[in-house]
Design goal:
- The longest helix is centred in the last third of the chain and has 29 residues.
- The N and C termini lie far apart (62 Å).
- It is elongated, with a radius of gyration of 29 Å.
- It has a two-stranded antiparallel sheet.
- The protein contains 16 helices and 2 strands.
- With 312 residues, the chain is mostly helical.
- 50% of the residues lie in helices and 1% in strands.
- It folds into 2 domains: 226 residues, Orthogonal Bundle (serine acetyltransferase, domain 1); 63 residues, no CATH class.
Length: 312
């Protein structure tokens, strides 16, 4: 089926579920550095356990990525990763040049920050807080934190309650750290991957209700999270644990017309209209050419034709 005919496309599923990564060739971060946080210490400790590739229990080692991922290191990949991070973390909202986090971008490009830390910096920036923390309800902010940083909505009411407890007791930055340092973020995105919306596919251990919830949060491809209100969109679904109704964006107008084409030919009515317009246009151009030529030859008999049509 043509992707443009799929309801998934109208939510931006095909175009937003992109895996973008970047690893600077001159990176100065890594496992050999002394850990500065508990999360870094746990990740480094788990890296020495040589856990085999494959499914595992996060309780065994929640900070270990179990598969090797290739991350390009060229500057084109760097620019793509930066733009993808802005688009995902800032909720598809337009960012003016003077609003961009230039220091973070420079540190990411020269290897002082990995993609994980670049995303962390964006989420803690005043740019993010001014849009998705200060001006929205607490419930709305938390559901957007999960969407922007994990690429999915909260799984249930308990997950929202746990996040709310961290935010109220330790602050907004602590909640960002808890999400980015989580086992799920580490396994899905690692150090070099940029988060992306991923609930349009069936992820292991996740209910299919997440498809409906992410569709409600996304609405459509072109809109940003700033345009969807300041209150929660999925609170009732999380509280009740039941599905919710979503408004499927209307298909583009050309999709409704295109099935009428048969054998690469337009519908008969459209073809008649096109031919009629072509004939009228050709006659008008021919009249203009005759008039120009007559004027050049000094023949002014045609000057009276417009007046005759007007009855003058």
């Amino acid at each position: 089926m043509n992707a443009s005919l799929s309801p998934k496309f109208r939510f931006g599923a095909e175009s937003k579920a992109a895996d973008v990564s970047f690893s600077s060739p001159q990176a100065t971060f890594g496992e050999k550095q002394a850990p500065l946080t508990n999360a870094e210490y746990l990740r480094q400790s788990c890296a020495q356990m040589h856990i085999p590739v494959g499914p595992r229990d996060h309780s065994e080692c929640p900070y270990r990525v179990t598969f090797a991922r290739y991350a390009p290191s060229d500057m084109e990949a760097c620019h793509q990763a930066i733009e993808a991070a802005y688009r995902q973390v800032l909720g598809n909202a337009h960012v003016m040049d003077h609003e961009r986090c230039g220091v973070l971008e420079a540190q990411f490009a020269d290897g002082r920050l990995c993609a994980r830390e670049f995303v962390r910096g964006l989420a803690k920036s005043e740019l993010y807080k001014s849009r998705y923390f200060y001006k929205v309800s607490a419930y709305r902010g938390i559901e957007l934190n999960f969407k922007h940083l994990l690429g999915r909505p909260p799984l249930d009411q308990q997950e929202v309650a746990n996040a709310a407890a961290i935010q109220s007791e330790q602050g907004f930055d602590a909640l960002v750290d808890a999400i980015i340092d989580s086992a799920e973020y580490t396994e899905v995105f690692g150090d070099h991957g940029v988060p992306y919306v991923r609930s349009f596919t069936s992820s292991s251990g996740m209910s299919m209700l997440n498809f409906v919830r992410i569709a409600s949060l996304e609405k459509n491809f072109a809109s940003s999270d700033r345009s969807k209100g300041n209150d929660s969109l999925i609170r009732s679904s999380l509280a009740s644990g039941v599905s919710m109704a979503i408004d499927v964006p209307p298909a583009p107008e050309y999709v409704a017309v295109s099935p009428a084409w048969v054998g690469n030919k337009p519908p008969a009515d459209y073809e008649k209209l096109w031919r009629g317009l072509a004939l009228v246009g050709a006659a008008h151009i021919a009249g203009m050419l005759v008039n120009v030529v007559s004027q050049m030859l000094g023949i002014h008999a045609l000057d009276r034709i417009p007046a005759m049509f007007l009855g003058l």
